[in-house]
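Journal club prep — side note

Before the paper discussion, L.F. wants everyone to see what a predicted structure for a comparable chain looks like in token form. Sequence:
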Amino acid sequence: MLEKYPKEVKLVVKHFPLAKHKFAQKAATAALAAYRQGKFWEFHERIFQNFKALNDVKFQEIARELALDLKKFNEDIQDQAIRNQINFDLRNGRRAGVRGTPTVFVNGKRLQQRKIQGFTRIIEAELSKK
């Protein structure tokens, strides 16, 4: 949908680390630290490729693989502004009724069918309103 409607559709990622996942909060923090070096999507992808093996060592390994500045990465992991962003996203998610991930919204409407047909249907319906 992003390729089909590059000017009309944008993707916004909100973090909603689940408490039951021991490293979810750290994964979100590390991904935002990687974002500051232009490597959010690459880091995000590696987190999901390694979700069963996540720990502090794995985050450092991924950062090295992506050639991140490790000093800056480790400073950013400790940055309260990143923690504040994640907490803000969590509060907003709770207010919106999010209970798990991924949860997808299109113009504030929760997407029930997360296959490409569901995305296409709701996005094109929203675009036709304009």
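L.F.'s comment for the group: The two ends are 17 Å apart (CA to CA). Keep this in mind when we get to the figures.
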